[in-house]
Amino acid sequence: MRWASVVLAALLLAVQGDLWFGKGNLPYVVSLHKQLDAQRAANAAARERNARVAAEVSDLKEGLEMVEEKARAELGMVRPDEILVQVSGRRP
């Protein structure tokens, strides 16, 4: 009986040693889980950015309002019947 206990204890130590120090050990698995969490967060951010870009593309394809808004904001577009008034931030 004592001999079987020694053999079983040795086998248990061998299995535990492989778990802690062998290929696919516990610290390596923990680091992989951290990398996976970071990648999932990056994917979620990219998914949100892609949704915003897709919505903008859809707006540009469907309506001219978005094109006009971008032209006004980025290029300073003014319609022929409008007068552009710029207000300075300084007070006299």
What features would you highlight for this structure?
3 helices; 92 residues; mainly alpha
Question: Helix proportion of residues, in percent?
Answer: over 70%
Element order, helices and strands? HHH
Task: Briefly note the structural class of the backbone.
Answer: mainly alpha
Average of pLDDT:
85
Beta-strand content estimate: under 5%
Q: Rg to the nearest angstrom?
A: 32 Å
Separation of the first and last Cα atoms? 102 Å
Question: DSSP helix count?
Answer: 3
Q: Characterize the largest beta sheet: strand count, sense, and whether it forms a barrel.
A: none
Number of domain modules: 1
Shape: rod-shaped
Annotation, overall tally of beta strands: 0
Low-confidence stretches: none
How would you portray this structure in words?
With 92 residues, the chain is an all-alpha fold. The protein has one domain. Helices cover 75% and strands 0% of the residues. The protein contains three helices and no strands. The longest helix has 37 residues, at 26-62. The protein is rod-shaped, with a radius of gyration of 32 Å.
Q: Helices and strands in order, then pairings?
A:
Blueprint: H1 2-21, H2 26-62, H3 64-75
Describe the structure in brief.
The protein has one domain (7-75).
